């Protein structure tokens, strides 16, 4: 099923892009939020499993994918992303959604539970919690601001395999697809990031990672599944234990030996994630 391309504007006029797969309008739609250096296209395979049964919307943040680039660097602060998500939900007629958030998308999910608690019907947090492991901040810090200008997709794959060796991708074809979702050809014929690399400067200007413990507690009233890549650079075992303790009904699915972040296409995840979502009206 081919998604529709949606173009809406944030309240300050910045263009936002989303992919929109149709489905049963009587069921709560899925809102898919990608990681900080990822785009809506990451959810294409995931959406194919659920489109038709319910509507699926995947969003490009400001400065990512097909969304607009900002002239002002401060526009890339995380709090502005949360506002954009709410603006997009209003424009796309999503008053309520099951939010599937990978990494940064999971952080945004927690923030939304405080900013607009009525929006969330349920949530899937993909390898992220209220406390970010410093290893993850170091990893993204060296990656988000780097534009390598690769000459070929094979060069991109080799680089990604080096810096993200534990991403749970099964074979060379999956790595090539992952690289193609990360970089795109520029006017110079080289492969460049699908995001504005200035987001790294915005993250550095914002200081360290915030304490999202109160935001995570905003998810207590709703069904939540946590996917934990056991070798994650972002989500530590200690944080997982804290999350389970604070939300005893949290549904935890562990992916042994995997690093950040699962694609949601892993055989060990497909059935439990789909079963969880199928239980949500």
UniProtKB/TrEMBL annotation:
It comes from the Bacteria. Residues 30-270 form the AB hydrolase-1 domain. InterPro entries: AB_hydrolase_1 (IPR000073), AB_hydrolase_fold (IPR029058), Carboxylesterase_BioH (IPR050228). Keywords: Hydrolase. The keyword Hydrolase applies. It holds the Pfam family Abhydrolase_6. GO terms for molecular function: hydrolase activity. Gene3D superfamilies: alpha/beta hydrolase. This is Alpha/beta hydrolase. It comes from Pararoseomonas baculiformis.
């Amino acid at each position: 099923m081919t998604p529709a391309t949606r173009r809406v504007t944030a309240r300050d006029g910045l263009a936002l892009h989303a992919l929109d797969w149709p489905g049963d309008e009587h069921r709560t739609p899925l809102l898919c939020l990608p990681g900080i250096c990822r785009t809506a296209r990451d959810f294409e395979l995931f959406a194919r499993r659920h489109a038709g049964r319910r509507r699926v919307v995947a969003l490009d943040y400001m400065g990512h994918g097909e969304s607009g680039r900002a002239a002002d660097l401060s526009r890339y602060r995380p709090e502005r992303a949360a506002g954009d998500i709410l603006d997009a939900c209003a424009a796309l007629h999503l008053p309520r959604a099951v939010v599937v958030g990978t990494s940064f998308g999971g952080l945004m999910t927690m923030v939304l539970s405080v900013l607009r608690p009525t929006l969330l019907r349920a949530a899937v947090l993909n390898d992220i919690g209220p406390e970010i492991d410093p290893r993850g901040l170091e990893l993204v810090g060296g990656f988000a601001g780097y534009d390598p200008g690769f000459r070929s997709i094979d060069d991109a794959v080799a680089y990604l395999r080096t810096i993200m060796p534990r991403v749970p991708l099964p074979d060379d074809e999956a790595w090539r697809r992952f690289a193609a979702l990360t970089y795109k050809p520029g006017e110079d014929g080289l492969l460049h990031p699908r995001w504005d690399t200035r987001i790294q400067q915005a993250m550095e200007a914002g200081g360290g990672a915030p304490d999202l413990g109160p935001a995570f507690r905003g998810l207590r009233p709703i069904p939540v599944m946590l996917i934990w890549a056991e070798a994650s650079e972002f989500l530590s075992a200690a944080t997982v234990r804290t999350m389970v303790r604070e939300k005893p009904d949290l549904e935890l699915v562990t992916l042994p030996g995997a690093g950040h972040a699962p694609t949601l296409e892993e055989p060990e995840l497909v059935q439990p994630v789909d079963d969880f979502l199928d239980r949500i009206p």
